[in-house]
Amino acid sequence: MSLKKSWVTSANSADHPFPLNNLPYGVFSTADGDPRCGVAIGDMILDMEAAESTGLIALADYPLFDVPFWNEVMDQGPAVWAALRDRLTALLAQGSAEQAKVEPLLVAAADADLHMPFGVSEYTDFYAGMQHAKNMGAILRGSPDLPANWLHIPIGYNGRASSVVVSGTEIHRPNGQTKAPDADMPSFGPSKRLDIELEMGAIVGTGSELGQPITVDEADAMIFGYVLLNDWSARDIQGWEYQPLGPFQGKAFGTSISPWIVTAAALESFRAPTPPREKELLPYLNGSKDGLYDIELEVLMQPEGAEKASSIAKTNYNRMYYSAAEQLCHHASGGCEMSPGDLLGSGTISGAERSEFGSLMELSWAGREPFTLDTGETRGFIEDGDTLTLRGNARGDGFTIGFGDCTGKILPAKTWG
Amino acid sequence: MSLKKSWVTSANSADHPFPLNNLPYGVFSTADGDPRCGVAIGDMILDMEAAESTGLIALADYPLFDVPFWNEVMDQGPAVWAALRDRLTALLAQGSAEQAKVEPLLVAAADADLHMPFGVSEYTDFYAGMQHAKNMGAILRGSPDLPANWLHIPIGYNGRASSVVVSGTEIHRPNGQTKAPDADMPSFGPSKRLDIELEMGAIVGTGSELGQPITVDEADAMIFGYVLLNDWSARDIQGWEYQPLGPFQGKAFGTSISPWIVTAAALESFRAPTPPREKELLPYLNGSKDGLYDIELEVLMQPEGAEKASSIAKTNYNRMYYSAAEQLCHHASGGCEMSPGDLLGSGTISGAERSEFGSLMELSWAGREPFTLDTGETRGFIEDGDTLTLRGNARGDGFTIGFGDCTGKILPAKTWG
Predict the structure, then answer these.
(1) Does residue B417 surpass a pLDDT of 70?
(2) Is residue A417 scored above 70 in pLDDT?
(3) Where is the Fumarylacetoacetase-like C-terminal domain (chains A, B) (predicted)?
(4) Spatial contact of B255 and B167, defined as CB atoms under 8 Å apart
(5) Complete domains list, chain B, with CATH
(6) What pLDDT, in 10s, does the model give residues B252-291?
(7) Are A319 and A356 in contact (CB under 8 A)?
(8) Any chain A CB within 8 A of the CB of B161?
(9) Any chain B CB within 8 A of the CB of A160?
(10) Given A125, A342, B221, B240, which is the most exposed site by the fewest CB atoms within 10 A?
(11) ipTM exceeding the 0.90 mark
(12) Is A331 a catalytic site residue?
């Protein structure tokens, strides 16, 4: 596939994140309007509420775009998703007969604020990167050996949907219980080991029924799109609380996502296989499609007052061991009802080299080997005032499918008010 | 406190679960009407949508009861909760001047179907019963020693809200991965160790802000009410999956709750203290009120075709080590935003004696010591066709605050369809 040209000329650049090939879905507001659905094209946003009310977009007998979330569209199912993408492509393509009607409905992205693009029904986080799992084992348990179930199960746990926020939302450092290995008693206070996790988030677009398992191929077709996801983590809180029932307050204070839903359709030509299975998967986890995507990922860190951010890690989503479709299939395997708007975190994405590690825990080897920023400052974990940014791009032949930054600044911990 | 008398005479019995002292909140439907909010009084249900539309109940400038859930009322906050309870008490009390207006709005409970009383925003399950934690340690790890953090943290994990269902909903046995200790590979199929967990569910009525911790007393005031809760558990799936990130598919196929929300106000006179702390709690976990309640609990089991259910366990909610208010305070301690409609499972409630254990895992000691039902049949775990029922009552002076049964029948596992 090559660049599809649009009459929105800013979209016709090989490096622009939002060419006609992408068409990601978000929610935006302007000085004169409430949050509403929009589609990014070049430097502009197509106002979908206006496009629907003027009759340019007509997908259902009732309005889908008069609400500040994309869940209504998800509910319509894959045939409508495809029809919407086809219609948007036709409206915005170079030579479109309807350019004159569409042009007044474009808003400059520079004039818009972005909001959560969908309502998160429930949030599940996985642990599907092998290098990350080995690193965490080596750091925490002194051995890179994988847990006994790791090569058989896409390990996941339920996270907290209420604390998923859109890029740009500031995050307060969490308080929590921690205990030093040699202390008699735990203490309570601000986390001293605040971290990120570089992940992709898969958004479930159509649901499943309670009690009903699904296949990997069915799961693949249920996925509406993807976002970048930073699963902020307080390693000291997590370390003391997580036995025996898993992470809880160490993960519940914030999860940031990028503001644009990049559809599975836009990523189709970037499909990539999972790596060779080290042990054969049970048959229910086998699907017919390549389930990962070739998406270049980068983490940047910017201390308070620094002029620019330092790149601290680069990796690729195709490094994962399990795909989102495999994870979703496993999620429903016991009969768990899946809902439109469910968000599945991929797990931390780490490549083989230190420079490819997707968390500060790994980059600084638990703080024992701090890394150096462009400013000359060093970091083991996050300090108050630091801004962390995730960036993601799939590179095609003369075009880019970008995600838009997933960024968040850390503020000091709050106390009781 | 003694029995408050109602002109609905069926409510004036010492043993009836729904006297005027109780006034629990549910959602019901009749042959001629959609699901709507109702309040149980004796053998009748007060139709709240009708009471509001006729002007007998007026709590806000817009309707609260034209929807099939109580979340709108929760959103109003504690002052409105108290005003509603006062108004209902006045309307239904013996000698009420408005009896003639209210009487036509009563529906016979026998003619009504009950539905989920509220929308579950998110579901969190705790592990706050000491006897249960010791039993599970002894069974699974060969030692009743508590985890190192147990006496300091009300341990909890995020569960799955989409699979919370109302009493009476049939549950399919889950499929899942299991591995025998001596097997090389796991296998996939229906769980062979299907279990219950006898719990109370606390319903969060008012929320908290992201980043903002709350005190135990604030948490106590945020709780709208309680239900009985059966956290169905597949022990074999859970046993293979839960390291290192906690329970997932072993818990995600169903959680049943009783159909009536018994308000915290109705339970006020049954407050009971938590047991003496074996280690002092950190200050943030200290509150000024007794946080447990004296509620008698019972588990019944009825095989397919048996004429009646056998009582298999009796215990009391006052056996728990941590209260719901302490759990909620801890839940928000890292800044996790809590929402109206969040459901907190207490953790399995087990007393000191075998007859007081709140799960089949404990009652049959992991299936090694099956127990005998009144029919003469024995059980280690649940068989297809078995119906499990939880029952709960707080006993006052001449009155009972009942919860209504929490029941569920197990159907065979489904396969891919």
Answers:
(1) no
(2) no
(3) 124-406
(4) no
(5) 9-115 (2.30.30.230), 123-411 (3.90.850.10)
(6) 999 999 999 999 999 999 999 999 999 999 999 999 999 9
(7) yes
(8) yes
(9) yes
(10) B221
(11) yes
(12) no
